[in-house]
Amino acid sequence: MTAAPRHPSSTRHKARKRALDILFEAELRGRSVLVTLAERTDAAEPPVREYTGEIVRAFDAHAEDVDARISAALAKDWSLDRMPRVDRTACRIAVTEMAYLGLPVGVAITEAIALVEELSTDESPTFVSGVLNNVVID
C-alpha cells in the first residue's frame, strides 16, 4: 500500500499555489483577478487547474467580504495592507475556501500554513495560523 502524497505534491495544494500566484500577480499589477486568470489559463505554463479557477472566481465574487473577515481577525494595530502580500493572499485563499467552497476550517488553515512555509517568512506560519483561527465563518 502506498502512502498518501504530502501537501507539496498534492493536486489541490498545487492548485492553491497557482491561485496564490494569480491573486498575487493581479494585486501587484493592479489588474483584475479574472483577467489575470484568463491570461494564465491561455498561456497554460504551468497549466491552470480547474480548482485554481474555482478559488480565483470565488475570491473575485466575494473579495470585499473575504477581506472584511480577515481584517476583523487582525490585532488592533494591524491592517490588511500591513500584512506581507504572500501572507495576505494565503489568508484570502483560506477564507474563500472555508466560506464559499465548503473546505473544512482545519484543512484550510493547514493548507494556508503550508503555502506560507514554502513561500514567505519564518514568522509567517504562526502569524497566518493566528489570523485564520480568529476568522469567523458562519
TrEMBL record:
What keywords tag this UniProt record? RNA-binding, Transcription, Transcription antitermination, Transcription regulation
What GO terms fall under cellular component here? cytosol
Alphabetical list of InterPro entries matching this protein? NusB-like_sf (IPR035926), NusB_fam (IPR011605), NusB_RsmB_TIM44 (IPR006027)
| Keyword RNA-binding part of the UniProt annotation | yes
Coiled coil ranges (UniProt) are none
Instruction: Name one process (GO BP) from the record.
Output: transcription antitermination
User: What GO annotations for molecular function exist for this entry?
Assistant: RNA binding
Any idea where the NusB/RsmB/TIM44 domain is? Answer: 13-135
Q: Does the keyword Transcription regulation apply?
A: yes
Q: Which PANTHER family does the UniProt entry name for this protein?
A: ANTITERMINATION NUSB DOMAIN-CONTAINING PROTEIN, N UTILIZATION SUBSTANCE PROTEIN B-RELATED
Q: Which family does it belong to?
A: Belongs to the NusB family.
Protein name from the UniProt record:
NusB antitermination factor
Q: Which organism is it from?
A: Raineyella antarctica
